[in-house]
Amino acid sequence: MLAMMLSDWERMWRRKKTLVSLLIFALIIGLDCLFLSMQKLGAFDNVSTVPLVSENFALFLLKEVSFFLVLIIGPMLIIDSMNGEYTSGQLRMVLIRPVSFAKLFLAKWMNLAGMLLLFTAVTFAVGEAFGYAFLPGADTVVFLNPEQQYGPIGAFFYCLKSYGLFYLILLAQLSLTSLICTLLPGVVLSYLGWIAVAAGSLYVSDSFGFLLMGMSTIFKLTAGLYHHPFYLPLLVCLGFGFAVTMGLWQRRGWTK
């Protein structure tokens, strides 16, 4: 299993899309840092804003880059790994060997989860470093709920919790996008399928709004102002997508 993961990890990094995505993401983070530092205010929505300080900068940096991770970079990497290799024929060259299709999917899923964790961790590290280097500090910080005040340590863990919740949303996206890639032929159709599922979830139930409006959900959830189920729908998306996709990979003739 470890050898399979290492082989897939190497193929992932040999693809130009992975390196280009990393470079573009680094550029986006840099530009957003400059934009936020000049703006001086962090906006939770169109109404609620707070002064930007070193203790909350990482949270609002995540808000700025979350759009690219959820709708552009994340789906592109997932689809390229899950669907692009099959479409280009690279996956057939791997699967002619005596390997388990389900284990290969698991290796890909875990590698992509690691890749998404890398993007999330880099954002957090840059946000914390930039905030403490270039923004003023504060003795207490208020987030969306004005009744809750946090000191520097409390604000750090508040931001860390928000990043953890966002990463869980990315994992749910990974499972659902993997399923869509398996059901739909072609990279373009898979991407359009993910956009349709994310947007359509808003019409199914407000509880699935985190797929498209993740940061808005996280802001309200961490402030105690979110009035819909969150963890159960998230685990359903994560577990259902993962289990069904693994079953499909195990049963389909990928080498034909």
TrEMBL record:
It comes from the Bacteria. The keyword Nucleotide-binding does not apply. It comes from Paenibacillus cineris. The chain crosses the membrane at residues 57-79, 112-135, 155-176, 183-204, 230-249. This is ABC transporter permease. The keyword Transmembrane applies. Keywords: Membrane, Transmembrane, Transmembrane helix.
